Amino acid sequence: MALENRHAIKEARLNPPRYSEDAARVILEAQKLAEKTNTDVNIGNLLSAAILIHPYDAQFTLDAYHVNIDNFCTKAIEFVRNSDDLSKLGPDHEPDFNRHAREAIRLASQLAEEEGVTEVTSAHLLLGIVMYLNQY
């Protein structure tokens, strides 16, 4: 069962209109992680959430695409540390998705579309992150 964007992602301005239940859980967990650090949702939050929510699925997905998880996580941590999008939020500001996270989710959406499926899954989110980080 898919959740509508308005239920899973507050004002994130993302496409497509539907996410699978597992992807919605990943996105909600990423938002919670961002709230703990008082920052917008970033690539690190998305990656951490994907691994926390579905550790075996994450490993399976990365293995299927021949992605070394240790190297990938190191690259993600390095990317987040060097990112210019980690500014603290004001007290009344709800976390949004920073430009890097939005682009990774856009790539995930594109993957789902290319596969001809109507929902973005947590595997699509993870692969979107991989594709985005491989650009750097």
What key phrases describe this protein's structure?
136 residues, mainly alpha, two-stranded antiparallel sheet, 2 strands, 62% helix, disordered N terminus
Task: Describe it.
The chain has 136 residues and is mainly alpha-helical. It has helices spanning 5-8, 21-37, 43-53, 55-64, 69-82, 99-115, 122-133, and strands at 2-4, 18-20. It is built from seven helices and two strands, in the order βαβαααααα. The protein has a two-stranded antiparallel sheet. Helix 2 packs across helix 3 and helix 6 (99-115) crosses helix 7. It starts with a strand and ends with a helix.
Topology of helices and strands:
Layout: E1 2-4, H1 5-8, E2 18-20, H2 21-37, H3 43-53, H4 55-64, H5 69-82, H6 99-115, H7 122-133
Antiparallel strand pairs: 1-2
Helix pairs in contact: 2-3, 2-7, 3-4, 3-7, 4-7, 6-7
The secondary-structure class comes to: mainly alpha
Average of pLDDT? 77
Number of strands: 2
What is the strand content? under 5%
Q: Alpha-carbon distance between the termini? A: 35 Å
Within the largest sheet, what's the order of strands?
1-2
Number of helices: 7
Low-confidence stretches: 1-17
In short:
The chain has 7 helices and 2 strands. By secondary structure, the protein is mainly α.
